[in-house]
C-alpha cells in the first residue's frame, strides 16, 4: 500500500517529542519524574482558566467556528483590531493553514535551522523548495536570501532561545514574500516583533501553550493582514478550538496577573539555572525563552540517559536539524525541580568524566 502514499511523506521524519513521565518510570524504575523537556509552564494555568474549562458541560454541541468573545479579548491583549485576529489549533494549526494558502510545489520556503522541526515537515508535505538559512555564532539569522514565497522566523527561537534581530526581519519583509513570525515564547522575553504585523506581508503567531499554561488545549492565534484573514477562514479546519478550550483561554486573558507572576518566577529561575550550569563548566547560551540551550562535552544521548536514570527528563537535541550530538535543551521548572536538576547534573558530569 506504500505506493499510494504521496512521495513527500516517504521522505518525512516523524516528529519525535521529548520522553514522557510514564516512559521514564517504566524504563528506569523511578517513582518520581521531573519533566524539563517540553517547555511547559511548570506553574500551570490560572485557576480561573481551569475552572472555566471544567464548568463547560455541553459536550454534544459543536464549538463556534469563529469565537468572537475570545477574539475580542485577544484583540485587547495584543492591541490589534479584531478584524486582524485569527485562531487555530496551536501555532502548528495556523501555520498549516498558511501553507495551504500560499505554498505550491517548488515554492521557496526559508527555514533557519536549528529551529522547530515541524517547519521542515510542512515544507516537505507541500513539496516546497526548502532554503536553509545560516545562523551566526549567536544563532541569529545571517545573510538571508531575498527571493522566497514564505520565510519562517521563530523569536525567541526554539531550541536556542535567542531573539531575532529586527533589522534582519525587516529585510525579509522588504523582500516581498510572506514572513511568518512564531512568538510562542514571547511572554518570557524582553522584546517582541508584534509591531511588524503592521506590514501587509507579515503574520505574527502566538500561543496559550507556554506562558498561559494551556498546552494540552492547543490554542493558538495570529495577527494577520486584513486581506489575508478571509483566505485563512477558508483554509482553516471548520472547528479548530473546542468550547472548553475557548472558555479556558478567555478566563486566562481575564487573569493576566497570574500569567505575569508565573513568567516572573520562570525568568528568575532561568537566570539562576543559567549561572549554576555555567559554574559546572557547561556551555550555556543566553535565553529569552523558558528554556536553556546547552552544548556538552559528551554525547547528548548519554547525558540525557544518565539524567533519566535519576528521574529527570531533558530534551536531546541531536535530532534537530542544525544541532550536534552534544546539544540539549533544558526547560525551566519550579525552584525545587531545578535544585534537583542541578544536583543531578553535577553527579552525571562526574560519572561521564
Describe the protein.
- With 353 residues, the chain is an alpha/beta fold.
- The chain has helices at 7-11, 21-28, 47-55, 68-78, 90-102, 118-125, 166-174, 226-235, 243-253, 256-279, 300-309, 335-352, and strands spanning 34-35, 85-88, 108-111, 129-132, 150-154, 178-182, 202-207, 220-223, 283-285, 291-295, 312-313, 315-316, 327-331.
- Helix 5 (90-102) runs parallel beside helix 6, helix 10 (256-279) runs parallel beside helix 12 and helix 11 crosses helix 12 (335-352).
- The N and C termini lie far apart (49 Å).
Reported by name, the CATH topology of the largest domain is: Aspartate Aminotransferase, domain 2
Number of helical segments with 4 or more residues: 12
Strand-pairing-aware structural class: alpha/beta
Please state roughly what percent of the residues sit in beta strands, choosing from under 5%, 5-15%, 15-25%, 25-35%, 35-45% or over 45%: 5-15%
Please mark out the parts with pLDDT under 50 across 5 or more consecutive residues, or reply none: none
Strand order of the largest sheet: 2-8-7-6-5-3-4
For the record, the CATH architecture of the largest domain stands as: 3-Layer(aba) Sandwich
